[in-house]
Amino acid sequence: MTRHRDNTDSDAVDRALALEILSGEQSAMRALVERHEEMVLRVCQRMLGCRHDAEDVAQETFLRALRSLASWDRSRPLRPWLLAIAANRCRTALAKRKAVACDGQILAEELPARGSGDQDHGQLVEEVDLALAQVRSEHRQAFELFHQDQLAYAEIAEVMEVPVGTVKTWIHRTRQEVAARLIRRGVVERVDHSENEHAMRPSRAATANALG
After folding, report:
1. 103 in a structural domain
2. Of 70, 99, 105, 138, which has the fewest Cβ atoms less than 10 A away?
3. Spacing of C-alpha 8 from chain mean position
4. What angle do helix axes 153-160 and 137-147 make, rounded to 10 degrees?
5. Same domain, yes or no, for 89 and 122?
6. For residue 153, how far is the Cα from the chain centroid?
7. Which residues form a coiled coil (predicted)?
8. In a shared domain, residues 144 and 187
9. Domain span at residue 21?
10. 110 near 199, Cβ under 8 Å?
């Protein structure tokens, strides 16, 4: 599936569909939902930790968005507005019950692990999950929304209701904390940054490819 993050053409398509919906075009409503249902569901599942609950909240998100579409600021992209509605509905759901923890993953292949093979890779993924479990929940959520769900910084800021600068700081700190834990446990080797300053910082594209 092609991603359209920060894509002007994609924003234009969303805007055109929204205008058609406001004029009463039912097919445009279905098209808009189909364009964003996967991402909305993933964000809901990330926040709620339960697919069944996420599906219910995602459905509620689209119902509320369609009812409130006339209030959408047409000068702004629609997707962040839609994700903000999803996040608000998730917070309402979380207020009614305790969130289920959601395991995190990052790209293991890009880290300089000791040894090789499927067994070593599996151990590294497990260690990364354990490291992420020690990170503050909001930092981990920002990290996962960025690396696993491929949201832009601005979109994560909308979802989490914090400034973009805060999102960047949380993601950076999470990378540092995970890397430090892996080094302490001897899972990865410390890298000489004078030789390769990016060796402990897997690229976002590589992370997305590894996570499927």
Report:
1. no
2. 70
3. 20
4. 140
5. no
6. 10
7. none
8. yes
9. 8-94
10. no
* Cβ 180 vs Cβ 187: under 8 Å: no
Q: Specify if 106 maps to a domain.
A: no
- Looking at residue 113, the DSSP 8-state letter turns out to be B
Instruction: Please name the residue that has the structure tokens 């209030």.
Output: 71
- φ/ψ bin of 24: left (φ > 0), alpha (ψ from -120 to 50), beta (otherwise): left
Print pLDDT tens along the chain (212 aa). 334 344 568 889 999 999 999 998 889 999 999 999 999 998 898 888 788 888 999 999 999 999 999 989 888 889 989 999 999 898 888 877 653 344 334 444 444 444 445 556 667 777 877 888 888 888 988 888 888 777 888 888 888 888 999 999 999 888 888 888 888 877 766 655 444 444 444 445 444 443 34
122 and 195 part of one domain? yes
Report the distance separating Cα 82 and Cα 46, nearest Å. 16
In a shared domain, residues 53 and 126: no
Residue 145 to residue 27: CA distance in whole angstroms:
30
Q: Which of 179, 204, 207 is nearest to 113 (CA)?
A: 179
Question: Residue 163 phi/psi, 5° resolution?
Answer: -65, 155
